Amino acid sequence: MRKWMLFSALVLALCLLLASPILSQEVPLYLDTTQSADARADDLLARMSLAQRIGQMTLIEKNSITPDEAAALFLGGILSGGGGNPSPNTPEAWAVMTAEYQLAALETPLGIPQLYGVDAVHGHNNVYGATIFPHNIGLGAADRPDLVEAIAQMTARDMLATGVNWNYAPVLAVPQDIRWGRTYEAYGADIDLVTSLGLAFMRGLQPDITQPGSVLATPKHFIGDGGTTWGTSSFGPDFIDRGDTIMDEATLRELFLSPYQAAVDAGALSIMASFSSWNGTPMHAHAYLLTDVLKGELGFSGFIVSDWAAIDLIDEDYDLAVASAINAGVDMAMVPYDADMFIDSLTRAVESGAVPQARIDDAVRRILRVKFMMGLFERPFGDDALLPLVGDDASRALAREAVAASLVLLQNDGSALPLTDDIGTIFVAGSGADDIGLQAGGWTIEWQGGEGPITTGTTILDGIQAAAPDAEIVFRGRGNFDNLLDESGAPQVADVGIVVVSEPPYAEHLGDRETLTLSGCDQNAIINTRAQSDRLIVVVLSGRPLVMPEVFEQAEAVVAAWLPGSEGAAVADVLFGGVPFTGRLPFAWPSALGVELYPVGYGLSG
Ligand code: GLC
């Protein structure tokens, strides 16, 4: 009897012990890293309330919400829009800022980590001191997938240093009209070039999304962003950006679809919808293209993120706009200002049946699956150890190589180039000769970029001075050398005149221009310098080809340098023959709008 009682007591004690919260605390399946991303997503989804689910579908700009507010709403992502910088704008301050949002998110009941997104389209370009690489148009001229992949790797490194894990890049646009302010964000007019370099950039960002060192790429903007018609823009008749892509389906597919098929096949897990419309229907409300084509036909299993407040443009009735976008296939809304407004609207839509619960669950499952695939639950923070590397010599050397490879020699009469380092006198002029901001263009430190020393780096003038240390070099921005006289009292004539002309910095629709001519200041700088130079070299800093027949008439040599970024000295590496000209036109160069002077692929060697 006693033994039986003792055994029963032991069995009871064991059952009580196992039932105790201490030992029976099993790891929930969604935190079990041996489980598949799909299984983890299904398990977590089942544990989530409607509020938590809709929160995951919400992406807000960091200036619109605090970390605690974001966590309280269970937000799926935070972004820094162009110029969404901390103060001070240092890599260290970025790392603190992103960590504060993530810490708050991890303290929520289910501890779902947030994505933190930026437009790191030519380096970690919002961050002061980060290396700024050539914009995509220059990389298209270089047509070096190895360089593009390496640039993306450096960009991912700098992003992770600051706790940023999501990049709204690469742009896969195939611009049809260079009057578009986003031409420079594209690699070129050739769809195969766009595919090749867009994939190279994706490989660099996410060589293996499941492993440390990768950030989430976001091919954009699906679909037809570069095919809109001038005057159809939501900004009015003087714009083309965010306009209407007016063409039949066969043409739309032929001009724009293959880069996205390639990106999906290469593992794209986030794709951004386009502001533009197709034959009058906004892309953000286009169920056929977003769901049937992108998710169905192309097999895209990641999530579609909307563009900046693009949902609002669908309809004046916000509830109708939200329901239309989510039902069309948008999975995460870049709201980006008022989280409550979007969350309340989508909640009403689910409760009324306007948006089926199944659509919400599909969207949230897609988002969670990507977060699990990224290892975000295991690696929610950046890597502080990388902070000292932001803007390091290695990235600047890579940028210098890319700049040199991007230059296109359009004209070289009398073999004016390359220059030799024993030149006696060099006159340097033009708006872009000594200006890092004009070298970098839009999406640099601020959304629209800026002029002057907006970040660290070297100017083209710096490079000329380093390349010809013994020369007499005079820099006058407007080319006003007329007070310089020779021994006889006549105006001094330099051996070489170098005029660096430029477009002002711009981004998106603010760069839409009907006339692509040089500024009056730059035109005068060319005339003035021509008058006092034995040989005239004109270097063009621009986000697209420009209409400048007068330049080809006045100068011996003309060089397209695009938007080279922070390492402007690299231009001199090529002007002085240290590196040969190898760049080729990614877009045709016009003699007048619509009149081709030089075709895609043109470029002199030398
Ligand atoms: C912008 C752009 C898009 C960018 C987003 C976030 O309006 O259209 O390319 O990724 O907003 O900055």
List the helices and strands and how they pair.
Layout: H1 2-19, H2 37-46, H3 50-56, E1 58-61, H4 67-72, E2 77-79, H5 91-106, E3 115-118, H6 136-142, H7 145-161, E4 166-167, H8 191-205, E5 220-222, E6 244-245, H9 249-256, H10 258-265, E7 270-273, E8 277-278, E9 281-282, H11 287-297, E10 303-305, H12 318-328, E11 333-334, H13 339-352, H14 357-373, H15 393-406, E12 408-412, E13 425-429, H16 436-440, H17 460-467, E14 472-475, E15 494-502, H18 520-531, E16 533-541, H19 549-554, E17 557-562, H20 570-575, E18 589-592, E19 595-598
Parallel strand pairs: 1-2, 1-11, 2-3, 3-4, 5-7, 6-8, 7-10, 13-14, 13-15, 15-16, 16-17
Antiparallel strand pairs: 8-9, 12-17, 18-19
Helix pairs in contact: 2-14, 6-15, 7-8, 7-15, 8-10, 12-13
Alpha-D-glucopyranose binds at residues 81-82, 119, 168, 220, 307-308.
Task: Give the helix level as a range of percent.
Answer: 25-40%
Low-confidence stretches: 18-24
Mean pLDDT across every amino acid position: 96
What's the name of the CATH homologous superfamily of the largest domain?
Glycoside hydrolase, family 3, N-terminal domain
Q: So what's the CATH class of the largest domain?
A: Alpha Beta
Largest sheet: number of strands, sense, barrel closure: 6 strands, mixed
Task: Order the strands across the largest sheet as they lie in space.
Answer: 12-17-16-15-13-14
In CATH terms, what is the architecture of the largest domain?
Answer: Alpha-Beta Barrel
Number of domains: 2
Pairing-aware structural class of the strands and helices? alpha/beta
Query: Number of helical runs?
Result: 20
> What portion of the residues fall into strands of 2 or more residues?
5-15%
CATH topology of the largest domain: TIM Barrel
Rg: 27 Å
